[in-house]
Amino acid sequence: MKVSEEEVKHIAGLARLKFTDEEITKYTKDLAGIVEFAEQLNEIDVTDIKPTAHILNIHNVFRKDEIGKSYDREKLLQNAPTKAAGCISVPKVVE
Amino acid sequence: MYELTLHEIRDKIKNKEVKIIDVVNDIYSRIDKVEPKIEAYVSFTKETAIKRANELQEKLDNGEDIGPLGGVPIAIKDNICIDGTKTTCSSKMLENFVAPYNATVINKLVEAGAIIIGKTNMDEFAMGSSTATSYFKNTKNPWNLERVPGGSSGGSAAVVSSDMAYASLGSDTGGSIRQPASYCSVVGMKPTYGTVSRFGLIAFASSLDQIGPFTKDVEDMAIMLNAITGKDKMDTTSVDIEYPDYTKALDKDIKGMTIGIPTKFLGEGLNQEVKQRFEEAIEVYKSLGANIKEIDLDYAKYALATYYIISTAEASSNLARFDGIKYGHRAEDFEDLIDLYKKSRTEGFGTEVKRRIMLGTYVLSSGYYDAYYKRAGQVRTLIIEDFKKAFKDVDVIALPTAPNVSFKFGEKTENPLEMYLEDIFTVPVNIAGLPALSIPCGFAETSKMPVGLQLIGNLFEEEKILSVAHAFEKNTEHHNMKPNI
Description:
The structure holds 2 protein chains of 2 kinds. In chain A, strand 1 and strand 2 form a beta hairpin. Helices cover 35% and strands 4% of the residues of chain A. By secondary structure, chain A is mainly alpha-helical. Chain A has a domain at 1-57: Histone, subunit A. Chain B has an 11-stranded mixed sheet, sandwiched between helices. Chain B has a domain at 6-252: Amidase signature (AS) enzymes (Alpha-Beta Complex), CATH 3.90.1300.10. The radius of gyration of chain B is 21 Å and the shape is globular. In chain B, helix 7 packs antiparallel against helix 16 (462-474), helix 10 (303-318) crosses helix 12 (351-364) and helix 10 packs across helix 13. By secondary structure, chain B is of the alpha/beta class. Chain B contains 16 helices and 11 strands. In chain B, strand 2 (73-77), helix 4 (104-111) and strand 3 form a beta-alpha-beta unit. Chain B has helices at 6-14, 20-38, 46-61, 104-111, 154-161, 178-184, 218-228, 263-266, 272-287, 303-318, 337-348, 351-364, 370-390, 416-420, 427-432, 462-474, and strands at 41-44, 73-77, 115-120, 167-172, 187-190, 210-215, 258-261, 291-294, 396-400, 436-443, 450-457.
């Protein structure tokens, strides 16, 4: 599979990243190299093999819906770049 | 006294041969002297450390038990949250992030009496094998300042190696504890996936990440494991089992135990001088009466490709949270919301992090999911089956930790794949969730740089690894060697 510059631009958009033309060329080369390396997995017959997403036999964990102590609002807000009236403020979303 | 091991200083404190405040001051004066050369720390917690030293001393003087780590100075990798302390992941993105809570491992260490002295440098968001992708600085290898300490937990390995902490915590997603432990000649361990809570560890690849300790010897490793393992209700992937007292695994006779060696897999790009030390280590085990058995791990050579698909896919998803809204870097000029996301992320992340986000987004993108991510999951199953089969016949598996010794700054930076190949012997362990430890096993002849022996166990069989590692340590002198700094 060959990775194209057009594809890398599309992926950058999905990943919410911006690149200069020069960077696009560099990342295209890097990604092509790694993807080519990853294609060695195509040598393996994986018919009927179940994929592993998680190594332990985990299952849903349920608990009672009880009111507990949460984190302090002011403390959580200290890391917000901008805030107003006890909330995180963001730029206008709806026109 | 900074050169002592964790258990030695702990005993001296307990027996009132030394005051805790003197231990803490001594380690900070060691740091003042050595840190300018090594640059392994990103921040210090001196004020709290001194306050805590006095509190613990008062308790001790009142006849109270101050715990199995009572008064011992310990360093923490900067991707583990400490309440009220900067936790940066060595990234511009989190340069000013102050954690609003403690990771579970921090609560556990504090409960066991440890004193946290500072946060250590790392590859940005734990992505790298040299600690050189850190936004802040290059940490040097204490054995040769022109060489890297390994990564991603390079700072945590270097502080233990250069006696700037008695022990430290790191995290290991593809070898990020074991490889720097090997490069810096200290003991480093990745426990079984799920034995140590990941709550408060900033996520890289959630199905592979595991917190683990760096120590000066195997006994200290057992003590640290006792402190940090356990089920945690804040991490649903943490496992609810009866956790043993790991120190009971020490001083065991290993006669009759079987050590497996995947000979064919070993052929993959292994440096001759590393191979020499590895073979000598196996001779030590033979002389101690262990059985050596050749094993096949046919799919292990595919672990690296599998790893780079799975880990980047999980990373691209985990790192989506850094959008410049709730915390982290926010760009100053932007046109609209999408532009705010894009500019904040582009300014906040470094090259290697972006490369991995891009690869992860690519393998998960529409049309490629089956070809890459699903297939990698299937190969993961085959790698796990391989190990299961091997552990029917052997107690532990031995491999070199890394195929080469530490490299010089600037080497292996042109082509990212070259750097990734340093993880070839460590990633299969994360893919299968197994426990593994790296222990010093000598020095390469030409470069005089440290070599690590990796011991891999079956799921939840940390004790066997500790027994086998301790036997090696008692019969060799490698762990007593100190860098000349």
